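seq as requested:
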Amino acid sequence: MAALQLAADLGGTVLSGEGGAMVLVERQRRHGLPVLLVLGTRTPHVLEALEAWETCAAELNLCALLPAPDADLSAALRFHRRRIGSLLAAVDASLPWLDDRPMLAKRLPGRVFMASPEKLGKAPLSPLEKMELKSFLPAWGKVARRDVFRRGDWAEVEGGYVMDLWPGVALPAAAEVCLLPLELPTATPLMAVLRFSLRAVFGQPIPLLPLPADPSNLQALAQLTSTTAAFRGPVEAWRLVYQKLAELPAPPHFCARC
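struct tokens:
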């Protein structure tokens, strides 16, 4: 029922099969054009992206994707890989900004489990990264920044303890990684386009920062294309994204219709 309601709200198609239901909302100017996939987990996540596509003339097709609440996104994407087709890029529009200010994510933490907790090393941060976080989060004290971005607290769960795991942290042999951390490449055409678009709309620098959020949706999108990022923004920013991405070289086209 949740997937059917999403489809009705957005004018999309319910895809069912392995992994559970997803709603695919397609906007096409012409078959064979480069395709951008925008992932949301709730309807509001994709509304700006859809409105921007309707009001710009970029030579780009759009796929908005929303999994049903109980869907296994990774399994569903594997199952519907050919239906979705080749992608120029994929972005997760469901992740929040850090401190609700415009930014782009370059690292996200995974999750680690231990039967009994041991002290882990701090997540590595360069002096420049420390300075950027301190400047971006002026109301956060040193302890708050350390607890969120470097070394958090263990939380008790059934059978043991879990904690966020940032990239670069060495683990004891007894630790079990439940969810891999993620490092997003920053020197890519996609990231340059996203950063340019936010900077143009907000008139301010857009930093690349660690984001304490679940990386699993981006990891699932990487099954479809290696060019992925987390992005949100107003309609004006999405329009610029489409215009700039339409100018990039597109991968060879394929889809289930061809």
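The first strand starts at residue 13 and ends at 15.
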